[in-house]
Amino acid sequence: MKNISKLLLAALAVAGFVQVATAVPTPPTTAGLYLVDTATGDFAYMTNNANYPYFNFNGTVGDYSINITVGGTVISNGVAPNLDLDVASATAGIGATTLQVYFSAGAFGPTLGNVSLATTGPASGGPIISSAYLGTNYFNMLTTLASSVDVYPYTVNGSHSVNTNSYYLTLEELITGSEASVDSHFTTTVPEPSTLLLGLTGLGLGLAKYRRRVCAG
Known about the structure:
This protein is α+β, with helices and mostly antiparallel strands and 217 residues long. The chain has a single domain, classed as Jelly Rolls (Sandwich), CATH 2.60.120. Helices cover 16% and strands 55% of the residues. It contains 2 helices and 14 strands, in the order αββββββββββββββα. A hairpin with a 4-residue loop joins β2 (32-37) and β3 (42-47).
């Protein structure tokens, strides 16, 4: 198993990373970025920091050299979260097979609306599977919201309805071999208050007309 130099470990610790070589990597329990080289078992993660929910990783994990930027915007106190996972490059070294990239954030909600995941790229390499999950904690992938193989130049990985009071989101890029330029966007769409009001008003008018017809009969 490949060991990481003490100098790199020190740099990662300053940046908020904890990097360990192990055959059984365990996801962190806080928001952040989590990377796993499945061939070596090496992993790295960046946890909640002053720049949350924005992270950048430019370094090595196992036999992979990686450049990643992730981030997100939270609208209306978590009602409509939007997240972005951009793997600018992942270069597989000798012996590398698959790289797992995860970005998890939360808690969000209450949300009543629709979510979707769409990916631009990859410009080269792969194949790559992009996925989005809903869970009860960070890196908990209880419900699959969207998942599919990315096809250049653009892929809609899927959509899903959400009606949940409190939840966490995890985005995943499963990369086989090397890749360049894959950018996944997770978006949440909720009805505007005016739309809900119009719907409720229409429902009320319909009930009123029904009652009048019943009374007239």
